[in-house]
């Protein structure tokens, strides 16, 4: 693994963890009223597109980051659809 791949994985890690505080706060408070469902859906769709790109290019960092972001976004969507407003 060369240095540019390490930079890619570091960036992927940081991108992937951006949703963890939001998911944790939503889970803890059982409240997602302030989150826009449209924002969540756009993130899910854009992440799916990035995954197609990542797999097409064979880019591990892109695939890794977007798999994590997709998972966390789906959790937020689940919370948005199940938690009472």
UniProtKB/TrEMBL annotation:
Its record classes its membrane topology as: Multi-pass membrane protein
Q: Which superkingdom, per the lineage?
A: Bacteria
GO cellular component terms, A-Z? membrane
Sorted alphabetically, the keyword list is: Membrane, Transmembrane, Transmembrane helix
Q: Where are the transmembrane segments?
A: 6-24, 36-56, 62-79
Keyword Transmembrane appears in the UniProt entry: yes
> What is the annotated localization of this protein?
Membrane
Please name the Gene3D superfamilies in this protein's record.
Answer: 1.20.1280.290
| Name under which the protein is recorded | MtN3 and saliva related transmembrane protein
Q: Which organism is it from?
A: Limnovirga soli
């Amino acid at each position: 693994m060369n240095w540019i791949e390490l930079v890619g994985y570091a960036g992927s890690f940081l991108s992937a963890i951006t949703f963890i505080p939001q998911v944790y706060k939503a889970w803890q408070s059982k409240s997602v009223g302030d989150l826009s469902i449209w924002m969540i859906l756009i993130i899910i769709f854009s992440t799916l597109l990035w995954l197609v790109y990542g797999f097409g290019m064979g880019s591990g960092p892109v695939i890794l980051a977007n798999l994590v972001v997709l998972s966390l976004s789906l959790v937020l969507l689940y919370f948005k659809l199940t938690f009472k407003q």
